[in-house]
Amino acid sequence: MEYFRKLGIIEPILKAIEDEKFEKPTEIQEKAIPLVLAGKDVIAEAATGSGKTLAFASDIIQKSKKGKGIQALVLTPTRELAQQDAAALGDFSRYKPLKIVAVFGGMSINPQIEQLRTADIVIGTPGRLLDHIGRRTLGLSKVNTLVLDEADRMLDMGFIDDVKKIIQECPRERQTLLFSATISAEVARLARRYLNEPVSVSAEAHVDPKKLTQVYYDVPDNLKFSLLVYLLEHERAGLVMVFCNTRLNTDFVANNLKAAGINALAIHGGLTQDKRNRVMKQFHARDVGVLVCTDVAARGLDIPGVSHIYNYDTPRDSNDYIHRIGRTARAGKEGIAISIIASRDYDSFRRVMKLKDVTITEERLPEVKKVRIKWKERQKTIRPGHRTYRR
Question: What are the two backbone dihedrals, phi and then psi, of residue 309, each rounded to the nearest 5 degrees?
């Protein structure tokens, strides 16, 4: 605990850290926590799984007092990250109990309204937070710490105007902490406008490049799914994440994997929150070995034990490739990232190959037996005057 004590963290949080069996601070914790506890506005460039939650939790918990109104607000891009942050803050504050409330869409608003009446800390997604502000069920006049978590993803998802409206509801005299996997020009503009003389820190990628193997297969269009099935059946894998670019493709892949006898589940923004929670619970418990997901649904989730990442679709934004592969080869373990490239992926894959420090080698295509596809892709058909869909 001496490593954490030297950062200035108070005893109740140190006890919780000890319960979590953390041995020493991560790079972003070591760099950010002393600045955060000194009251500085901070811009922290750090990937998912880097330990950034403790970096802002240590400050929020130390400053907050039970029953004094909402003193800290954490904005997140996704429901899953809101839940994850709320759970982590709950763990770290177990010896200094505070009322922590997560608010997000896809769930009934009435229980949230009731919980917000006695909340000390609120974590939420921009849309639902604005909904509460509009209903006057969320007052931010006492907020002294504002956290923008996964800021780049919030802006990528089009939340920039919502984020600005929420910031303007907070007091001018406050501490603002911005955490982002990448500091884009838009993120930098947001920081310049709303942070006061911020200090910037960054942490190296959490992935060990020596333990991460990156390969790709160039396949005919009609064998793309068949190769995925072949590899999943022949690879010795732990937990597997298969990334697709769209909700429709995520459902297409997950349903056909199940039809092929592979235990897979889909997660994307089109599912109800209850369904998303059940899927993640099964995946964390290893009841399901393959999670088929979109970038939006998976971003920000810290899932230990992922051995294989499959890019069924190459991401349109090459930075998302880095976020995807960052989910394996962690904590000293081996990992592999496999891209399945068909003609529709060529342009996006060329951009990925140009990324700095990314080395992807081509693998010889094995003899793949064509898998019968039972669940067809849903395609859009536009007819004069109206729109219909066919499977």
Answer: -115, 125
Sheet containing 199-202: give its strands across. 100-103, 121-124, 72-75, 145-148, 175-180, 42-45, 199-202
How many C-alpha atoms does 144 have within 13 Å on its Cβ side?
Answer: 15
Report for 37-51, 206-220, 323-337: range of highest mean pLDDT: 37-51
Residue 370's SS3 state is coil
Contact between 129 and 168 (Cβ < 8 Å): no
Segment holding 85, helix H or strand E: helix 79-92
Tell me the residue type at 147. V
State the Cα–Cα distance between residues 217 and 219, nearest whole angstrom. Answer: 6
CB 74 within 8 A of CB 57: no
Domain boundaries, the chain: 2-202, 209-379
Extract the runs of DSSP E, i.e. beta strands, from 277-330. Answer: 290-294, 306-311
The reply to whether 209-379 shares the fold of 2-202 is yes
CATH number of 209-379: 3.40.50.300
Q: Average pLDDT for residues 332-354, to the nearest whole number?
A: 91
- Cβ atoms within 10 A of the Cβ of 285, count? 8
CATH of the domain spanning 2-202: 3.40.50.300
Average pLDDT over residues 189-214: 84
Encoded amino acid at 359, one letter:
T
* Adjacent-strand bridge partners of 390: 379
Model confidence pLDDT, tens digit, residues 77-86: 988 899 999 9
Residue type, 126: P
Residue 205: predicted pLDDT: 58
Q: How far apart are CA 301 and CA 288, in angstroms?
A: 16
Express each pLDDT in 344-369 by its tens digit. 999 999 999 998 778 899 999 999 99
Angle 301-303-309 from CA coordinates, rounded to 5°: 95
Per-residue confidence (pLDDT) for residue 209, from 0 to 100: 59
How many angstroms separate the first and last alpha carbons of the chain?
A: 58
